[in-house]
Recover the amino acids of this structure.
């Protein structure tokens, strides 16, 4: 807390590649300048109000190819407030007492854009491909506040022992963000990381085979699950899979089974003797082979970031949703259900980046080999 200015000015530099979202205690005037995300400081990538990026790493080489592992990460900044959820992004500096707070409230527009990622599986049945982002799952979802209802998927009794004042909200199913609850069940990410409530809590959500396609009508619903108790459901030492059909996991059904589960982790405040840090090793869900003749990935020994072409296609199609109005923004909620992003839209995005790259003087080896790679172009 209180040291963002040092990183923003370049006086301090993050020692490793860092990805961040906004919460409710940020320098909102600076973050608002990067609504769609970007380098907010050297080596620190801000996800924007909502965003999706890929973290790529060279994990080996063959005689004629490189093996590139990709981790797909989605983020949603801010916290939920029903009064501002449907409005445009009307806030601008200098903020008054009201806009100082509403500026970090999430918006329906951003949730609907993220929700569009849940339609990727319907556009094509080809093999997942990191370059097109077709049919690929979200490996990690990051938000500040918890998805509503997540408390019922872990050790609820232990949570209430640590935070007894949560009981009323837990029992009425109002603890957490109802919009994030929809994203949880629509996107079904492998992991979901959050914070905000200043307590470490782990949970495992088993999605089953229920149909997706939740609407924002569910945001107002507060149906209450039964409180859970007993041993904590670990999200970081998960050793097995459960099949709803009684079928043992094998190479043909393993992906289907893992897609049915989300492992949730929230950590405490960064204070002494608090559970505020945890190290996890997460493998990317996509491993691709890139021809050596078409790349220079052998020169890249550290991970790099890559734009998500599917996400950029969503942003391009919904550009008119971004409005600075203090009125309700009317959007077509079923836009991507009935007409998901197609491969032509994705190829157009990649082509635009390729043409733009040819007009620039970037010497970054990865960018020259892959137009979707994000250059380290932060300038103080």
């Amino acid at each position: 807390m209180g040291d963002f200015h040092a990183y923003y000015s370049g006086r301090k530099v993050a020692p490793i590649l860092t990805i961040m979202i906004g919460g409710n205690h940020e320098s909102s005037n600076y973050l608002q300048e990067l609504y769609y995300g970007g380098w907010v400081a050297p080596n620190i990538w801000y996800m924007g109000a909502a965003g999706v990026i890929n973290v790529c790493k060279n994990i080996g080489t063959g005689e004629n190819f490189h093996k590139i592992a990709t981790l797909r990460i989605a983020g949603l900044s801010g916290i939920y407030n029903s009064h501002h959820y449907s409005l445009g992004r009307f806030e601008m500096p200098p903020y008054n007492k009201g806009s100082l707070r509403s500026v970090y409230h999430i918006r329906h527009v951003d949730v609907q854009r993220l929700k569009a990622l849940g339609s990727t599986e319907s556009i094509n049945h080809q093999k997942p491909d990191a370059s097109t982002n077709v049919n690929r799952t979200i490996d990690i979802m990051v938000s500040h506040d918890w998805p509503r209802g997540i408390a019922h998927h872990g050790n609820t009794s232990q949570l209430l022992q640590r935070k007894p004042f949560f009981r009323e909200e837990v029992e009425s199913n109002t603890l957490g963000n109802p919009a994030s609850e929809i994203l949880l069940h629509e996107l079904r990410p492998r992991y979901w990381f959050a914070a905000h409530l200043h307590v470490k809590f782990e949970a495992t959500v088993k999605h089953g085979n229920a149909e997706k396609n939740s609407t924002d009508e569910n945001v107002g619903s507060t149906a209450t699950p039964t409180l859970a108790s007993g041993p904590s459901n670990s999200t970081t030492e998960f050793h097995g899979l459960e099949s709803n059909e009684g079928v043992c996991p094998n190479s043909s059904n393993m992906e289907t089974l893992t897609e049915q589960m989300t492992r949730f982790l929230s950590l405490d405040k960064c204070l002494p003797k608090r559970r505020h840090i945890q190290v996890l090793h997460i493998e990317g869900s996509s491993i691709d082979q890139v021809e050596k003749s078409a790349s220079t990935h052998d020169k890249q020994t550290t991970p790099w970031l890559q734009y998500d072409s599917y996400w950029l296609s969503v942003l391009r199609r919904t550009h008119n949703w971004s409005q600075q109005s203090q009125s309700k923004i009317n959007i077509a909620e079923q836009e991507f259900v009935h007409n998901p992003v197609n491969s032509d839209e994705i190829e157009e995005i990649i082509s635009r980046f390729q043409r733009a790259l040819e007009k620039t003087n970037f010497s970054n080896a990865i960018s020259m080999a892959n137009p979707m790679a994000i250059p380290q172009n932060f300038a103080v």
